[in-house]
Amino acid sequence: MKRKIQNKPIGIFDSGVGGLTVLKEVLKQLPNENIIYFGDTARVPYGSKSVETIKKFAMQDSSFLKSMDVKMIVVACNTVSSNAMNLLRENFDIPFVDVLLPNAMYASQVTRKKRIGVIGTPATIESGAYSKIIKKFNKSHKVFSLATPLLVPLAEEGLVENKATEIILRDYLKKLIKKDIDTLILGCTHYPLFERKIREISGDNVQVVNSARQTARTVKSMLEDLGMLNSDNKKGDIRFFLSDIPRNFRKIAQRFLKQNIAGKVSKIDIENY
Amino acid sequence: MKRKIQNKPIGIFDSGVGGLTVLKEVLKQLPNENIIYFGDTARVPYGSKSVETIKKFAMQDSSFLKSMDVKMIVVACNTVSSNAMNLLRENFDIPFVDVLLPNAMYASQVTRKKRIGVIGTPATIESGAYSKIIKKFNKSHKVFSLATPLLVPLAEEGLVENKATEIILRDYLKKLIKKDIDTLILGCTHYPLFERKIREISGDNVQVVNSARQTARTVKSMLEDLGMLNSDNKKGDIRFFLSDIPRNFRKIAQRFLKQNIAGKVSKIDIENY
Q1: pLDDT in tens, B30-51
Q2: Tens digits of residue pLDDT in A37-53
Q3: Rounded to whole angstroms, how far apart are CA atoms A252 and A32?
Q4: Are A164 and B168 an interchain contact pair (Cβ–Cβ within 8 Å)?
């Protein structure tokens, strides 16, 4: 018997574990959905690599999720969202949600001074994607972007409450704060780990916009619009697939997910997709 | 006409650009050799990944160099040297030089207190390879190992003379210094970038052993022993192959190589090997 499309899983992928911050919000807003999470932990990080390589990896990640018969793919990675969405949407006949559009829309709405800061990986910032999309909503908005390449390794090492991390964050953020921004987009799914510290450094006059929450809202409303919400009245299953099972995976994942990994974790060879 | 084995190139590989510190020393000691350098820049870093994945990548890296008809393979990566040498030597009929053995031997010889510190990636340190090999030379030597995972991203970002880097280095090193070591092995080919700072923090009583120099000496003496030194009396060619051409590659490479990249840089798809 063919499975009803509503009851198929949602696919979520990221270069590694950062996308778990998106998964966490999706679980909160859509507890009945079945989910397949793929993290490309063998090739993480993406954000310092070339656009050509990012595109190739994004195609393989999506092919894997497609092979798992998902009803929708959530690109829980700002680097892929900034560099490969046209390619993915052209090549797969399935709805995609990326993290860029929900963030950019939300930031455009909440800014009063029309001065928005964005931090992200070098690949996200160099793509100019946030700036282009925000200016499409409103030409008068000013966008100040900054690549903050050390935040991914610091997050993966769990160095959040740490003197060196604080110095690095202050060094990065002062460049944006002096531009008189009132809204700051955390343009990388790893960055919510630093959200408290970033709020502290930025002060009360800066609204901090976190990828995960807005993205999960978009997933929910798109599933509603498409009539694809899961109709089972029970808690969904979560399955994790990784291209490498890194040392201490469950500990690292717990840091991002803010709960224990409950589902099954399997390893796949992403180079075959 | 078949090329004489002496005039074939030496192959050198690393997970990324760290191995360029080894290349630099090889060029200095063996200026007539032709060299093929492969950096797996699409999948860097290796040191935080699982042993299984490191082995798979090391096999592919060696297969690529073998396909380029090299006379010897230099594993300019401590993570691979600590985790995959048996596998490589079993699978390829070609001499290998790794970075572990030359470093461990040298440190064993220079220590007076018989107390040696080692810093490296998580995969290098967890393998226990340095400790095992040093104790094989001399059972009474004490080895104190410490994983220092942030030094690779800091080196790749060029954050050498930086306040945050200094705090991170001091935090790491104080754990080893209080063990009263008199010798410190930089067990990662990225770490020579911090050598000056590490010497300053460790003080005059600690000898700092750098992977690159000892490894290049081993390459030279092994080629001499095997009668495989290049017999051409002219400057050798260098060719670079990478699995991804990262943004600012030449700038980053210049930082490690301490000179401009003179050879041709090509991209290959390492997943095909």
Answers
A1: 999 999 999 999 999 999 999 9
A2: 999 999 999 999 999 99
A3: 25
A4: yes
Confidence class for position A2, pLDDT limits 50, 70, 90: low
**Percent of chain A residues topping a pLDDT of 70:** 99
pLDDT of amino acid B259: 81
Q: Is B106 a catalytic residue?
A: no
E-strand ranges in chain B read 10-14, 35-39, 72-75, 96-98, 115-120, 142-147, 183-187, 207-210, 238-242, 264-267
Interface residue of A49, A126, A267, A272 to substitute, partner B, most B CBs within 10 Å: A49
Q: Is B188 a catalytic residue?
A: yes
Give yes or no for A153 touching B (CB within 8 A). Answer: yes
C-alpha B9 chain-centroid distance: 18
| Residue B108 scores a pLDDT above 90 | yes
- Distance to chain A for B30, nearest Cα, Å: 32
User: What SS3 class is residue A145?
Assistant: strand
Mean pLDDT of chain A: 93
Residues of B in contact with A165 (CB under 8 A): 164
Residue B94 has pLDDT above 60, yes or no: yes
**Distance separating alpha carbons of residues B46 and B61, to the nearest angstrom:** 12
Catalytic residue among A188, A216, A253, A270: A188
- CA nearest A205: which of A117, A78, A106, A108? A117
pTM confidence score? 0.92
CA–CA separation, A156 vs A154, rounded Å? Answer: 6
- What CA–CA distance (Å, rounded) separates A15 from B43? 11
Nearest residue to A35 via CA among A25, A48, A50? A25
Cβ of residue B5 closer than 8 Å to a chain A Cβ? no
Confidence label for A248 from pLDDT (cuts 50, 70 and 90)? confident
Catalytic residue among A23, A73, A76, A77: A77
Q: Dump strand ranges (E) for A65-206.
A: 72-75, 96-98, 115-120, 142-147, 183-186
Please give the DSSP secondary-structure letter assigned to residue A74: E
Domains and CATH numbers, chain B: 9-97+213-229+236-272 (3.40.50.1860), 100-211 (3.40.50.1860)
